[in-house]
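ok so for the tutorial part 2 we go from a plain amino acid sequence to predicted structure tokens. step 1 is just haveing the sequence, like this:
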Amino acid sequence: MRSAGGDKSILKGRNKEDRELSDQRILGSGEFVGALRQQAERLFEKKYQPKRNIEELVKEVAVRLEVSPELICSKNRQRKYSEARALVAYLAVEETGHTAADVARFLGVRRMSVHEAVTKGKEVCHRVCSSTRRGT
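step 2 — the prediction. this is what the tokens look like for a chain of 136 residues:
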């Protein structure tokens, strides 16, 4: 009401859907605020949705990359296992909302290593997904 300058006639003629979500002078346009709300809702859902088990993610990645699930969780430093661990870390933290500490405990690595692996895992994910779409 105040943002309309105290003029109730401005609000009376509008449908509920047509009203702005904010005072443009403070937050910006209603589109901007709507986009922020949608992003916040997605983050909220990701954080509080039922999480897929990390063990399930390891098995799924093992099948996708054709490696042994046991070797993903090992200290093996070969590239294919390192990338598989990174992909598990990325999927667990970014896609399913597990904490880095939970993933670190499961994989037997330090929490900082999981944060580094998430960045690497994102690259691996894009490479693996794009090669799957091309049929290779």
